[in-house]
Amino acid sequence: MGTSKSRNTSAEPFVINGETVPLGARVTVELPIPQLYTHPMSMPVHIARGKRSGPRLFVSAAIHGDELNGVEIIRRLLAGLRRLRGTLIAIPIVNVYGVIHHSRYLPDRRDLNRSFPGSERGSLAARIAHLFMREIVGQCTYGIDLHTGAIHRDNLPQIRANLDDADTARLAHSFGVPVLLNSDIRDGSLRGAANDQGVSMLVYEGGEALRLDEVSIRAGLQGVRNVMRTLGMLPPSSRKRDPAEPIVARSSSWVRAPDSGIFRSLAALGTRVKKDRVLGIIADPFSAEETPVAAPFGGVIIGRATLPLVHEGDALFHVGRFEDVREVTARVEAFQQYQESAIEAEDDSLIG
C-alpha cells in the first residue's frame, strides 16, 4: 500500500521509538538495533522539525558501512540548518556495524541495501531493514540516500533515480549534479522499498569508499539543500550562480579488463571518450607486454577503478551513454570548475 504524501506532513504528530517530537524541536533519538556480542548498539537518528508544516524528508548515509562521504554531508547539513519548514530526519550512519569494521556489509555478511523491506523475524539484515522502514521511511514523503563508489572505485557525482516519475525527476534535476541516471530499481534496495511505499527517492553517488572527497561532499551537501529548497523546506538561495541543467544518461555499461596485470588509467572521471579510444593499459608485471583497454562505445566516464591490480573481467570504467556527449562533457567541466572555485574561496576565507 502506498504512503500518502498529503498525510505525511509535519503538521501530523511525529513519533519515533515511542518518543513524540513536537513542532520546532531538534532531538536525537537512539534507535535500538541488535546488539553485538559485547555491548548494546543503537542507530542515532536526528529529527529537526520546523515551526510550520511541510514535507517530511529523510536523508541517510552509510547503508554500506565503508561509504563515508555521506556521513560528513549530513554532519555539515545539520550544523548549518536554519529556518526549516517541515521535518528533516537525518541518519548519518545506518550500518553502524559496517562502519566499526570498515566493511560494506553487516555482521551476517549480508548487504543491507539488498535486504529491504525486511522482516521483523528475519535475519539481522532483514530486522534492521524492517526497523528502518517502520520508523523512518513509513513516516516520510521524500528520501535521499547518500552513497559512494564501492571499494577501489571512484564515482563522478551523480544522481540515480526513477526519472519516469515526474515528482522524482523534478527533485533529481534540482539536485545540481551534471549527470542523472535513469536507473532501474534493484530488488531489495531501499529505493525500491521506499518506492513501494509511495516515497519519492534519490540516490546520490560520489567519490570512493573509505575516503573523504571534498568535491563530492560539497556537491552532495549543496544538492541536498537544493532539494530542500525545491520542496519549500528551506528559503531560496541567495547565490547568483548555479550549475547548469544536468544531462540524463540513456544507459551505462562497464568496460572490463581484457587481461590480468598492472592497470594504469589514462582517462579521468568526466572524460568524453569515443569508440575504440584507449582508456588505460594493463601491463604484465613479469614482461614488457602491454594490453590496451579500449572503449567499446562512446560516452562519458562516470566511474572508474582505482586499484592498479586487476584480473581479467574486472570492471574498470563505467561509461554513460548520452544523446549529446559534447554537451554533457561541457557541463561536467563547468561543474568541476564550480566546485573547485568554491573550495578555493572557502580555503582563502579560512586563511584570511
Attribute tags:
alpha+beta, 4-stranded antiparallel β-sheet, globular, disordered C terminus
Characterize this entry briefly:
By secondary structure, this protein is of the alpha+beta class. It has helices at 69-79, 96-100, 124-135, 166-175, 190-196, 214-230, 325-351; strands spanning 14-16, 19-21, 26-33, 41-49, 56-61, 87-91, 142-147, 153-161, 179-182, 200-208, 247-249, 251-256, 261-265, 272-273, 278-283, 290-294, 299-305, 309-310, 315-321.
Task: Describe the structure in your own words.
With 352 residues, this protein is an alpha+beta fold. The protein contains 7 helices and 19 strands. The strands form 3 sheets. Strands 3, 4, 5, 6, 7, 8, 9, 10, 11, 12, 14, 17 and 19 form a 13-stranded mixed β-sheet that branches. A 4-stranded antiparallel β-sheet has the order 16-15-13-18, with no helix packed on it. Helix 4 links the parallel strand 8 (153-161) and strand 9 (179-182).
